[in-house]
Write a structure and sequence with these properties.
The structure is a single chain. The chain is mostly helical and 360 residues long. The chain has 3 domains: 8-177, no CATH class; 185-256; 268-357, no CATH class. The protein has 14 helices and no strands. The chain has helices at 8-21, 26-45, 49-68, 72-91, 93-106, 124-140, 149-157, 170-177, 185-217, 226-256, 274-278, 283-297, 304-322, 326-345.
């Protein structure tokens, strides 16, 4: 269920009522939240509940097998293969199939396109990446396997985050699910403020600025000069207010329930360099790519040029994560190129800020 849905507040009120009715048992509170999360997701399309349950089951089983200490790499590989293959089929199959046909055609080989008419499940990129962190973190020894499947299932399907993030980590959110939450006045006030601020960003700023963007972008050949510049600036405001608004609402709702979600945006347009920007923009995702892509590729452990290649590849994959189109691949490549240039000539390796550690 989207936060802007007219039924959202009624759903939230019912969930809060049931949640606080079991205030003496965090186990039953988690079951209430799990049922609410599945109901929320099922209201969009109940057929994809099987998909989210399947991803949950595979990664939970992999975590259990890895915890046992035998063939850990094999079980991690199986979990990653299943999860990424699922994401690839639903989100990227037609993109790669279409481009493969074009590539073979350029060499004089003809192959018919195999188009899968699949609906892209809502939030698939978010909860797939979130689920992957569980077997990965157990493999690294960051966390231990949780005995309650319902706790892990809630971690994957948690309704505030399942559609638009933040991309949570098993090591960050699971411990909060496994302990009793204390709801204080400060948490309630903070949660309500985040929700109000999120809706203001989304409904007042993003949606109204979007009117300018849509008018120009949908018919850009009729506009010139200053109009185009204004539309581009308006778009940068729109995308931050829209996405930042959604994640602030998610953080606010979670705060009302006693949870602390990862910060996703920290004034990114005040960044002083490319590295600083990615320490402020979509922070939960950029740090995910750092920990689960850049570091496994070798990070900075194999020399300067290999490190720069790892940065570039990571940013290309980050671009592809955003959408199955060459525009997103090029966008990721461009940001990867900027990061590499900054590292080589802009003093990026000498920086000591948060994101300097991301790609070091």
């Amino acid at each position: 269920m989207l936060f802007t849905s007219p039924f959202f507040f009624a759903f939230l009120a019912a969930t809060l009522f049931a949640y606080f009715a079991f205030h003496k048992s965090n186990r039953w509170q988690n079951i209430v939240l799990l049922v609410a999360s599945y109901v929320s997701y099922g209201l969009w399309d109940w057929r994809f509940l099987g998909l989210i349950v399947g991803l949950t089951g595979v990664n939970y089983a992999a975590g259990w097998a890895i915890q046992r200490g035998t063939r850990k790499t094999l079980y991690l590989g199986l979990a990653l293969t299943f999860s990424l293959l699922t994401l690839g089929i639903f989100k990227y199959f037609n993109f790669f199939d279409e481009n493969l046909v074009k590539l073979l055609s350029a060499f004089g080989l003809k192959m018919g396109a195999v188009e899968l008419k699949l609906i892209l499940p809502l939030g698939l990129s978010f909860y797939t990446f979130q689920a992957i962190t569980y077997p990965f973190d157990i493999y690294r020894g960051t966390i231990e396997h949780t005995r309650r499947f319902t706790d892990f299932a809630l971690f994957v399907a948690f309704f505030p985050t399942v559609v638009s993030g933040p991309v949570e980590r098993a090591a960050h959110l699971l411990p909060q699910l496994q302990q009793r939450r204390q709801i204080t006045t400060d948490k309630v006030n903070e949660g309500l403020w985040l929700i109000l601020w999120g809706f203001f960003q989304k409904l007042v700023i993003a949606d109204n600025v979007g009117l300018i963007v849509n008018q120009v972008y949908s018919n850009y050949t009729q506009f010139h000069g200053l109009d185009i510049i204004i539309a581009v600036i308006a778009y940068t405001i729109q995308i931050l207010a829209d996405f930042g608004g959604y994640t602030d609402i998610a953080r606010g709702v979670a705060r009302l329930l006693g949870f602390d979600l990862l910060l996703n945006f920290n004034h990114p347009y005040f960044a002083i360099n490319p590295s600083d920007f990615w320490s402020r923009w979509h922070m939960s995702l950029s740090s995910w790519f750092r920990d689960y892509v850049y570091i496994p590729l070798g990070g900075n452990r194999k020399g300067k040029w290999r490190s720069n290649l790892n940065v570039f590849v990571t940013m290309v994959l980050c671009g592809l994560w955003h959408g199955a189109a060459w525009t997103f691949v090029i966008w990721g490549a461009w940001h990867g190129f900027i990061q590499v240039i900054y590292r080589l000539f802009g003093g990026g390796r000498a920086q000591t800020g948060r994101f300097a550690m991301y790609f070091r």
